[in-house]
Amino acid sequence: MANKNEKDLEKDIENDIEKEQTSEKKEKKKKKRSKEEVAFDKFEVDVTSSGKKNESKTPKQKNPFKRIVEYLIPQKGDTKNEIIRKILLLVAICILIGTLSFLIWQLKGMSNTGKKSDELANSAGVPNSSINYVEPDRLTNPPANLLTTAGTEEPEFIDLTPVPNTPLNVDFNYLRGRNPDTRGWIKISGTLLNHVVLQSPNNPNYYTNHDFDKNYEEFSSEIFSSWRNDWDGTDDNIILFGHNLKSGYGFAYVNHYVPNDVSREPLAFYKVHPTIMLQRDGGPSETYKVFAGIVVNTEEKYGEVFDYTTKTKFHSQEEFNDYIIQIMDRSWFYTDVDLEYGDKLLTLSTCYWPTGRDKQTRFAVIARKVRPGESEYVDTSVAERNWGAKLWEYYYKLTKTKWYGSNWDTSKLKGYNGG
Q1: Distance from the CA of 401 to the CA of which of 21, 120, 303, 411 falls in 20 to 30 A?
Q2: Do 389 and 295 meet the contact criterion of CB atoms below 8 Å apart?
Q3: What is the DSSP letter of 213?
């Protein structure tokens, strides 16, 4: 009996031990499963009852084009401020595209203009030099202090050796064959101003927007004559017009005669180019000495309008002297060139905007023909800037200056006041 009880006791102990081990195994599995679930949660993975894993889906990206459209075009549900923002942005984009298109069109037009001008010069037997054009380095609207002083800095080195002239020998038969409006040829040696002169018999401004072959060209590089000129040798003053083009063609170089007031040598361009060459159809090559450069107003609402575009003939010494006096009072520089009744003049006129581009102002260079037997030489060392040129009311108001009267050497005009 005792032996049976001992066996039962041992069996009970074994059962208790087995239960404890089973319980420990279950607890371990439970803890392991709990850890796995935590780990899966960290990686955003669900554990289903079936044991399969399902990855979460990334939101689908919108089409880039559709996103741009939604950003620019007003949409249903947009706020009022959002709609206004989108409209203003669209307007800005349209303006930018228009501006870039215009600039590209202008650059392309200028390139074509220069190419046609060079080809024409080559065909006429007066080829252009290889020149990289650079616009004048000057202030568009000089402050008042620069109207009375050249500054205090040491002068920069500038080569003032005049460019020599080579007599013109233009093939006018070729030019006239292509365009019967051909009247002459003009050249400033060492520049891109080397071009045919035209004159329309029916429309005085025709060549402002037509090229040599009479094709429409908004910014034409053609040089054209006043309709008042006869071109038969009887003109006392040949008056020419041309656009001031950024490409350097047309009459861009005429503006280089404007004194460069940001330089300590404001008349450098004049000193290097003191003469202009002209050949009339059927005439010889002629040289003209530059003696004045004037800035004029063309709108009465801004003050005096000096009309320099109508004097192509002088019928008396008094009329000639009066005109020269008017020119010299307005000239932005003085030279060593003298004048007398009977001299033939040459006037080159183009746009210049010292008071802003919305004001119709002009700059004109005036030269006189070298007399028979006279040397082409000009003593440019005595040329000087005139800080007191006669201008007009709006200019004086803008710059807070005024005209103090004539200050040029009247002895340079022979036959005037005993000169």
Answers
A1: 411
A2: yes
A3: T
Q: Is the dihedral of CA 120, 123, 126, 129 positive or negative?
A: positive
pLDDT value of residue 73: 79
> Which amino acid is located at 154 in the chain?
E
Of the listed ranges 41-55, 97-111, 248-262, 346-360, the least confidently predicted one is 41-55
Pairing of strands 223-225, 194-198: parallel
Q: Is the dihedral of CA 187, 188, 194, 198 positive or negative?
A: negative
Three-state DSSP class for residue 215: coil
DSSP state of 380: G
Contact assessment for residue 338 and residue 332, using Cβ atoms and an 8 Å cutoff: no
Sketch out the chain's domains with CATH numbers: 62-123 (no CATH), 136-412 (2.40.260.10)
Provide the percentage of residues in the chain whose pLDDT is more than 90: 59
Contact in structure between 128 and 121 (CB atoms under 8 Å): yes
- Please give the backbone phi and psi of residue 411, each rounded to the nearest 5 degrees, phi first: -70, -15
The token pair that represents 229 in the structure block? 């000129």
Q: Residue 406 burial by CB count (10 A; 0-12/13-18/19+): exposed, middle or buried?
A: exposed
The pLDDT of residue 216 is above 50: yes
What average pLDDT does range 224-241 have in this prediction? 97
Contact between 255 and 243 under an 8 Å Cβ cutoff? The reply is no
